[in-house]
Amino acid sequence: MAERKKILLRLDPAVHDALARWAGDELRSTNAQIEFLLRRALSDAGRLPRDAGAIPRRGRPRTRKDDGTAQDHGEEEK
């Protein structure tokens, strides 16, 4: 995976607060929410590069139970 670019982004404080609240509602960091929205805007405009990597899935990674089936964290075994 290519190294991620770091940028400085200046925002109106009210816009930042709205993004932070929205990110919290979506269980994302503010940074992840901004990237999600930028990718969606690029895709909607037909400008998302084909070689753009996928957004990493949210949450903790799935684990394997002893029988080889996937189990989400927090899911109780039966």
Automatic annotation (TrEMBL):
Transmembrane segments annotated in the record for this chain: none
An annotated GO BP: regulation of DNA-templated transcription
Alphabetical list of InterPro entries matching this protein: Arc_rbn_hlx_hlx, Ribbon_hlx_hlx
Region ranges (Disordered): 48-78
Biased composition (Basic and acidic residues): 64-78
Source organism superkingdom: Bacteria
Entry protein name: Toxin-antitoxin system HicB family antitoxin
Native species: Marinactinospora thermotolerans DSM 45154
